[in-house]
Amino acid sequence: MDKKKLSPSYFQLKLMERMERKLAFSQERDFEKWRKKLKRKFKELIGPIYKENGKVEFKILQEEKHKDYILQKIIFFTNRDVMNIAYLVIPSEKKKKYPAMICLQGHSTGAHLSVGKAKFRGDKKAIKGDRDFAIQAVKNGFVALAIEQRAFGEREEKLLKQRISYNRCWDATMHALMLGHTLIAERIADVMRGIDLLYQLPFIDKSKIGCMGNSGGGTITYYASCIDERIKISVPSCSFCTYEDSIMKIGHCMDNYIPSALKYFGMEDLAGLIVPRYLIIVAGKKDTIFPIQGVRKAFRKAKEIYKKGGCPENIKLIIGEEGHRFYADKTWPVIKKFLKTGGKNGYIIGKKA
């Protein structure tokens, strides 16, 4: 008797191996038609993105003046029912226009890590893993907007009388699914409204907006970049990997999952929605939940997609020697190198502009 077949995952993994991905990239497909079908299906699977348009009203709650930057804690609304907490970090040096970076934490104590603030036990160690994204950004000449992701930090669930207390995302993810969308779509909506906010600031260079994050922050960085073409530089860290090597083989938080995704595409195929914009994938050689072999496999496919799109130099893989963390020293030089193009990729699909 084969007792492995008692486990639910045995059937699921076998089914995954046999499943045809109807929108997987292939050289034979018409590239632009494939991209359009893929984007349409991706948007369908993550569900509606509930956000308002027009002017973003925001309020400054706190302001701190540091030697090199001004730090503002703000609130702004994605829609009338969704309030965001965020940190806006502005360099002290006076310039007419700055590039901007959206910064996203993953499963952590919150967005305060992005601005280098240790509030809770373990925060100092987390920050040492280069998770102070907003401070890094301002030191590299960016304005930073560090958004508190739904279900993390100050946006953890507070109203439910009974909830899954050991997992920050469980309740929000499950309830979103019952409503016909995903927590992924909700978080993307917040990023998109954050970009709306950056667009209305007179000192922001709209052609140079990036998004970066680690783990769950990297996941939303990647998926938001698939949806919003205003993100010109996408920097997902410790989150990009084949589904079969990561979230289907290893226990992960449920906010990583997209209903029916494997019937149509892998994570690597979605790179086609970011082409020709810049994609900088960061990974840790010893990451135990996004294994490096799966990262390399996914990157090879993504690189092939970028080559088909006529811009293989616009995608980069950066591998750090440690585990599930960001690698600032290796990554920022690449970001700055890409910025030297003036925010213009110089390519349209399939040929030089």
Total count of helical runs of at least 4 residues = 9
Named CATH architecture: 3-Layer(aba) Sandwich
Strand order of the largest sheet: 1-2-3-5-4-6-7-8-9
The chain-level structural class is alpha/beta
Q: In angstroms, what is the radius of gyration?
A: 20 Å
Number of separate structural domains: 1
CATH top level assignment? Alpha Beta
What is the overall silhouette? globular
Q: What kind of sheet is the major sheet? A: 9 strands, mixed
Count of strand segments: 11
Q: In what range is the share of β-strand residues?
A: 15-25%
What does this molecule look like?
It is globular and about 65 Å long. The protein has one domain: 3-Layer(aba) Sandwich (Rossmann fold). The strands form 2 sheets. The protein has a 9-stranded mixed β-sheet, sandwiched between helices. A two-stranded antiparallel ribbon has the order 10-11. Strand 6 (204-214), helix 7 (216-227) and strand 7 form a beta-alpha-beta unit. The longest helix has 17 residues, at 183-199. The protein is an alpha/beta fold and 353 residues long. It contains 9 helices and 11 strands. The chain has helices at 8-18, 31-46, 123-131, 133-139, 170-178, 183-199, 216-227, 292-308, 328-339; strands at 58-65, 69-79, 82-91, 98-104, 143-147, 204-214, 233-237, 278-284, 315-320, 347-348, 351-352. Mean pLDDT is 94; it is low at 346-353.
